[in-house]
Automatic annotation (TrEMBL), chains A, B:
Protein's gene: plsX
Main location: cytoplasm
Family as reported in the entry's similarity comment: Belongs to the PlsX family.
Name by which UniProt lists this protein: Phosphate acyltransferase
Entry keyword set: Acyltransferase, Cytoplasm, Lipid biosynthesis, Lipid metabolism, Phospholipid biosynthesis, Phospholipid metabolism, Transferase
Length: 341, 341
């Protein structure tokens, strides 16, 4: 059995080893054909593993002396932190030691480093940040870009559509023609700004299963499998949704603690409320994929806990198992040839 | 007592008179110093009023023979429907018969007609669609633009900030320096695309209470009173939020009907769940203001019911009462002078 190996930036995120080590150990229990390379301060990693009474089975430690700060400028990290846990973790992919890298560190630095080390797939100009978001009937929609590119032209948006479509097809073999929607201010063909109108035409000419313009609520209505959007708008949508879900949760909490009767109702409704909370738990959807690179790089939320970090590792594991990079490469080449004809 | 008069496009929206008439009658009961001009098919309006056993006190009927279709092109409506209920309702403001107009009709046509008939305030190039959205601690944030302008330059975004700030100050006299936030992909000053970076600098130089860049979740965190965003992104955010809140509601419903025990819990928790639902009821936040025009024009959601339509009328009423147009005019002039110095 060949092990699927993920390089972990063990020092990244708001809580570093306190989150990455327990998350990594849970992950290894769940996936018996996975191995991890823990990258960072060797002494500290060893001590964290000992504290957790972890066996060293399927674990390798790879030393890295530096850590990229959460607020560090991406260019500075790229230039001055060549031995950072983040950089060394990504290097593991390039050197063939790992098939994926996961980090909870600085998003900008991770993107800059991943692009620099791994390069983009032929035909893709810039990678996008992609994330599965949950909607009606347990459907998930892959939304991209979520903030890597604040200005996008139609060529880039088309590339996101192709890469996203291939990623979904790779991960769900029963869905070989994922429905692609283009985020717009209305569903009519003539809507939108110049870049979006151009993208609409490119998508119509492509071989993708393009279903047309959709509005922001399409994430939840299960009408598309891939939602293409520029990084500025995508980021605003993601943060708005996170804020809205959190706010609704607060209202639920406020209402169920408003009076002694409501508190009593809450006790009786506790299993239901817990299940409700679990279904919308952002940790279950943790792990954004940097799509378009020649390697699987997954960004975990910086403030997540061990459970959330484990989900990010699962996201990387699924991408390796689905051989998504090879499929995106083939898909991009095929789509671009079709468009040129 | 001078009556505050609102012209109502009685024929607009998905349900026309079935919604506008009961909504109008409820509104008149709630606001005893308000009067309504019901614009549309006189026979049908009279018949709807008779059916509702309405007194004609504070009600005038203004005949209009045409109706703008919900999918009609704005330019076509503007050119060919000069006697539409929408157009005639807006004319009432220009002719001094009403101080505001409310319509649940076609958004694009309403905006085009309102701009054509009323013109924009001096110093404002294009009006924006603005809406109060609810957040933590019963705070509301005025978000603009929500879709009138899919491409915005920094001058327009600055104008939105000024108009939005004046609107909030007019409506809440205790808040004379509303906090203005600029929607961005991060809070650092250097983030964003070119238009947003320029806007950031203009806002810093302005006399507004500019608190800097904020992310999409700022709508819910009560950190700003006015959130400035281009119409493309603003529309995507609004639709995403509406979709997310609806989705969370579906999950609550699904969980509380999953088993007989959960259904029992739901019965006990019913008052709590009802209050939860009421607090997030989109009808309570119905009514988008077209900000920057020389008159109060409010757009009701096309698919709302009488309760929702009544809230849209309240929004117009509050704007008249606060004399918001005069205040925006003065504010724009003052801010623009300050920026030129």
């Amino acid at each position: 059995m060949t092990l699927k190996t993920i390089a972990v930036d063990a020092m990244g995120g708001d809580f570093g080893l306190d989150v990455t080590i327990p998350g990594a150990l849970t992950f290894l229990q769940q996936q018996t054909d996975a191995a991890l390379i823990l990258v960072g301060d060797e002494t500290k990693i060893r001590s964290a593993l000992t504290k957790a009474s972890a066996s060293m089975e399927r674990i390798t430690i790879c030393p890295a002396s530096e850590v990229v700060g959460m607020d560090e400028e991406p260019t500075s990290a790229l230039k001055n932190k060549k031995n950072s846990s983040m950089r060394v973790a990504i290097n593991q992919i390039k050197e063939g030691q790992a098939q994926a890298a996961v980090s909870a560190g600085n998003t900008g630095a991770l993107m800059a480093t991943a692009r620099f080390v791994l390069k983009t797939i032929a035909g893709i100009d810039r990678p996008a940040i992609a994330k599965f978001l949950p909607g009606r009937n347990n459907h998930v929609t892959l939304v991209l870009d979520l903030g890597a590119n604040v200005d996008c032209n139609s060529t880039q948006l088309l590339q996101f559509a192709i890469a996203g479509s291939q990623q979904v097809a790779a991960l769900s073999p029963e869905n070989i023609r994922p429905r692609v929607g283009l985020l717009n201010v209305g569903t009519e063909d003539i809507k939108g700004n110049a870049a979006v109108k151009e993208t609409h035409q490119l998508l119509q000419r492509s071989n993708l299963n393009f279903v047309g313009n959709v509005e922001g609520n399409a994430i939840f209505t299960a009408e598309v499998d891939v939602l293409v959007v520029d990084g500025f708008t995508g980021n605003a949508m993601l943060k708005s949704i996170e804020g809205a879900v959190k706010f609704v949760g607060t209202v639920v909490k406020e209402e169920f603690t408003r009076s002694w009767f409501n508190k009593l109702a809450a006790i009786i409704a506790l299993p239901t409320l817990k299940n409700f909370k679990r279904r919308l738990d952002p940790r279950r959807f943790n792990g954004a994929i940097f799509l378009g690179l020649r390697g699987v790089v997954v960004k975990s939320h910086g403030g997540t806990d061990a459970t959330g970090f484990c989900f990010a590792l699962q996201e990387a594991y699924k991408a390796i198992k689905a051989d998504s990079i090879t499929k995106i490469q083939a898909g991009v080449a095929q789509q671009l040839t079709a468009l040129e004809e």
